[in-house]
Amino acid sequence: MPSDNRLNISWGRRRLVRVGNGLAVTLQDISEKKAHESQLERLANEDTLTGLASRHAFLERMPAMLAEAQGAALLFIDLDEFKHVNDTHGHATGDQLLKSAAGRLLSLLRPSDQVARFGGDEFVVLLSPCDGERMAASVAARIVEAFAVPFLIGDELHAVGSSIGISLYPRDGLDAETLVKHSDIAMYVGKNEGKGQYRFFDPSLSSTLNSRARLKQNMLEALEADQFVLYYQPRVDAHSGELLSMEALVRWRHPTLGMVAPGEFIPLAEATGLIVRIGEAVIDKACAQLAAWREAGAALVPVSINVSPKQFLRGGVQRQLSAALLRHRVPASLIEVEITESAMMGDQDDILAELAALRSLGVKLHVDDFGTGYSSLSQLQRLKMDVLKVDRAFTTELANSKEGKVFFQAIVSMAHALGMSVVAEGVETEEQLAILRNLDCNEVQGYYIARPMPAHEMAVMMERRYLLDGQPA
Fold it and tell me: Given 145, 172, 202, which residue is the final one in a domain?
């Protein structure tokens, strides 16, 4: 039986050389070299983690794709809470989430649409053909809705969500660079106005970004020039009206803009990370003010300070607080720390350690804006918080429906069973106060008692002591 002399070569180079009256044929196996070239090309054009097109490949193909399109839309997609997942659960979980996000994104699009991972937790989609805003909005809304569903990674659910900026071809740009830039601007502005939405580009957004950049620079200067000040809002016993504590609220006294409202600078401070420095300044100012009141002979009550999720999850609050208490010689019993539910959604071991460190100082711990986050009964029991502050949205509902009262009563019963006292935020009417008294709420805070006020006015309140009408002066 003749032997099989066929060569198993995927890629080869043939060379013919005349030798006398014949030809000499040499074959060179270049399969390995071609495979290596193919792998390099794939690495250059494909994101290795998700299998989507890479940024480089997408931008290279885009001119040809636009040339063939009558109309197209570029969607710039950013995952809203990805950094939090990555920081608290590790890069392996983050990578799995990105792969799942890529798969979910592909399932929502047509074969003609092009998708790429642009870097980090950003994706871009070229919808082609696209006949205008209505179609682009429909696809963007579908993506936002789909990404609002948590991702199951291992045996844990992770909620991220998405923010999307949209630019239309040819309306918002004639080339890839301009369309990407404009969709990125639209995404960034939309995300900072409220995550989990889509936003179309319009030229005014560029000026909005410039305004935000100026505001950030102004905040940096405000920290250096000590322009942030504290206002104080009393909390009183729901039944007696006696002043029991107060909340310190940061305000920005700008030399030319006047008093800048918290809603204008706190979200940007959170987004840029400046909230950490502002939070540290608030801790020091609250302790300094307590020392000043003590020096003036005031009958002191505790002051609670708000710790932002970013500030809390980065750690160091206990160290900052300990140093400020020592520096101003203020007892820890006069400081309370308010932490939102969302700040307690990271790694439970790290959170418990940070809370234990704060508790070891002797400060009380509050759950702030309860009802707007994700706390469960078992989580509250494990975290061992001292005070539950119920969000103003539930206080507003008290007089509007029977269900509002039932829900609030359930919160009060739960908190008391866990040894926590309850503060109702946003109390604005006598009717709300009467209902809260019947529900056995411990303390109340809101405009019905007093608006936030500067330190010298708060000193008068401390002297007065009983702040509800009809109560002892």
Answer: 202
Q: Is the peptide bond before 111 cis (omega within 30 degrees of 0)?
A: no
Q: What domain range includes position 33?
A: 9-38
Q: What letter would DSSP give residue 418?
A: T
Residues whose CB is less than 8 angstroms from the CB of residue 256 and which lie 6 or more positions away in sequence, other chains included:
none
Task: Give the distance, in angstroms, between the CA of residue 107 and the centroid of all CA atoms in the same chain.
Answer: 26
Question: In this predicted model, what pLDDT tens digit does every residue of 39-56 receive, in sequence order?
Answer: 544 445 788 889 899 888
CA angle 292, 296, 297 (to 5 degrees): 120
- pTM, two decimal places: 0.61
CA distance 106 to 141: 15
Residue 209 lies in a domain: no
The amino acid present at 48, given as its one-letter code, is T
The pair of structure tokens assigned to 412 is 């009060």
Say which DSSP state 150 is in: P
Is 163 found in the same domain as 28?
Answer: no
Q: Tell me, what DSSP letter sits at residue 325?
A: H
Picking from 146, 157, 68, 81, the residue whose alpha carbon sits closest to that of residue 109 is 146
**SS3 state of residue 417:** helix
